[in-house]
């Protein structure tokens, strides 16, 4: 096991390097840079600015300068925000994180419960309803459903705020602040949950159904075990195994999945920053954020492999 | 407003939402005798609708007694003029920093911190007289040294912001920047309230550059050393200026808060608190509807206007925006070199239809390269290219482009094809131009790319047609300068000696009456020999909550100049 973990760890480091290299070059190869997108600069001024920002150096040199800085914990300086990338992301990333984490929690809880129950009661009315709602929720575009909810709960019923994270001009602190933010989170979290709960429910339902049909479940039942023990101890445990991988993959999704939602609800998250930096070719932010996401993917993968190997010994034997 | 984006923004939805603070004015702007006969100018006045029932205001808005909330799109937190890179930060700094000179609703200079100014006979030397009671919010007076310091900062070799001070051509500025001189020769503080600035070149736009927002030397110049401006970064989030409001708090991604400045030269603003709330255009209407906002701008269309009207508590103004949309034509390509071909392509395109599709009645066909709200707008005697395929065909025939076997016109074995760059996948030009141009035997191929790629092709002159629109036009010279043969930003490769001369003349005098004549002449020549295809002027809708008084958004400063006068009816 130790050897397997070490092996995967070294692999991970190499992949991280490779990714950073690819990311840098892909962005550098995109036509236009931050200065170029400003058509009104005179060529002389543009040239001066490029020299000031170091954009006139060859790509390879820029890559190593950047990499060297990354090792010192310096992810660069945002051209558009005139602020270090670390502090910029730090300002917004946590806001994205709390929404995504809550949504993740609700999605998994709801999906697990409904998935399991609709599998147990396959073809029942409950199962039918779940299947129906799952498909309905999956087929709504997030944009549409967000605006609909804003209209219902924000404009017509006036019970929930339309957007933002706090009330305008609010000066609350402590517990009152938490309550206020919580209230603003209801709609975005509800919508994110609604949108992703569908596929996961289906996933759990199918997983459960597959395991229920296995011989060992039949044996367990034949032995006269209680139905509850059969379902939760034997079936669920086996059915949930593949979900470990899934959960690990959700790690990067936590930060990148909610861009549209953040925009509509004016949630001060990292998604908006990301979109902006693409359109303005703000390379330092773009690269830092992409690197961050790809690192999360790679680390998530690593964690998935390791935990999977821990619970299923057949994997590390290979 | 202020350098909304220094760029040509095309697709950026920003452009539309920009109207949040940016604006178009109520327009009696057409002063002087020129009786603008055309529908363009008539439309330019726009429409306004009064609130019918102010009591319909949502309770949230009624409860606000001393706070005015306006929508803003996406500020980034750099609250220092000349140093922000994000146009929205420009909006956010306007309440804090007052300039010496600003523009009024007609785009003409008005004194703010300067009581008055004079220009020398040769139009090279500007003397600003600063108001005696002009003070920064910390109580220290605004002096000639502060102005000198601000200009010096812009000449520093480490300065990397958007302001290109070399355009003002201050005497000795270049030497200072290159480190050859310790001071800038052309800047002289005569006494604490008087500053004299000498330039090397007459430039009609220099007044605004020189008379920009003033930074306090005491506050921003404490640690100044030549060639080192990094210390200013710590002050980006702690602005101090001489504007009507004082910055109090920035909640990233949420809002910017201000309080009234009781040291403001014109007296403390009437409303104690000002908040710029960050909104998204998808939900700004709902924000206004629920009383979260007192002021917001929207893209003009029937649905939005109707919905705003149905709220009953909103004062609505639908007015033209101070910019225009166009299609660049690459004049260096052999097929477009001929002015008759360009004329034919104008006649052959149903621009009215494009404007109708895109703006649904809230836009009009552009005829000259300035917006109808500018003081320079005068379309009398210019050639208007009404849709006329017959004329287009005739012109193409005359230019030697004959219809070939494939139905496409050819000349010397080359087919008349247009590759059209656009960054808008739903560009209304595409289907209409395709059909129109096919009728006159021209092949039209759209090429949808992202904006940066478009710009990159544009700057390399590697394109046929490219769709762009201008940013806010502060001075009529802004849009025509790029037509000059030697202008490095002449991405069309256009060259016309008469236009070159007129551009120089337009910039070479400070006399507005004279400039008007020059630009009128220029517009006439422009339409005779069109460098590119003008498409639209557009309108935007602004909604002001019924209980707000004294807010008159204009086309140059947005709500900026109204800020000291806003009050809430109680």
TrEMBL record, chain A:
Protein localization: Cell membrane
Keyword terms of this UniProt record: Cell membrane, Membrane, Transmembrane, Transmembrane helix, Transport
Species this protein is from: Fictibacillus marinisediminis
Xref: InterPro entries: BPD_transp_1_N, MetI-like, MetI-like_sf
Annotated family: Belongs to the binding-protein-dependent transport system permease family.
SUPFAM superfamilies per the UniProt record, alphabetical: MetI-like (SSF161098)
Membrane-related topology note: Multi-pass membrane protein
UniProt keyword Transport, yes or no: yes
Biological process according to GO: transmembrane transport
Name recorded for this polypeptide: ABC transporter permease
Ranges where the ABC transmembrane type-1 domain occurs: 93-304
Transmembrane segments: 12-30, 92-117, 129-150, 185-204, 239-265, 285-311
One term under GO cellular component: plasma membrane
Location, primary (coarse class): membrane
From TrEMBL, chain B:
Protein name, per record: ABC transporter substrate-binding protein
Gene Ontology annotations for the cellular component aspect, listed alphabetically: ATP-binding cassette (ABC) transporter complex; periplasmic space
Signal peptide boundaries: 1-20
The UniProt record lists the keyword Glycosyltransferase: no
UniProt GO MF annotations: peptide transmembrane transporter activity
InterPro entries per record: Peptide/Ni-bd (IPR030678), SBP_5 (IPR039424), SBP_5_CS (IPR023765), SBP_5_dom (IPR000914)
UniProt keyword annotation of Transport present: no
Subcellular location: Cell membrane
Solute-binding protein family domain: residues covered: 108-484
PROSITE patterns: PROKAR_LIPOPROTEIN, SBP_BACTERIAL_5
Highest taxon above the source species: Bacteria
Species annotation: Fictibacillus marinisediminis
Main subcellular location: membrane
Family: Belongs to the bacterial solute-binding protein 5 family.
Gene Ontology terms: biological process: peptide transport
Pfam families: SBP_bac_5
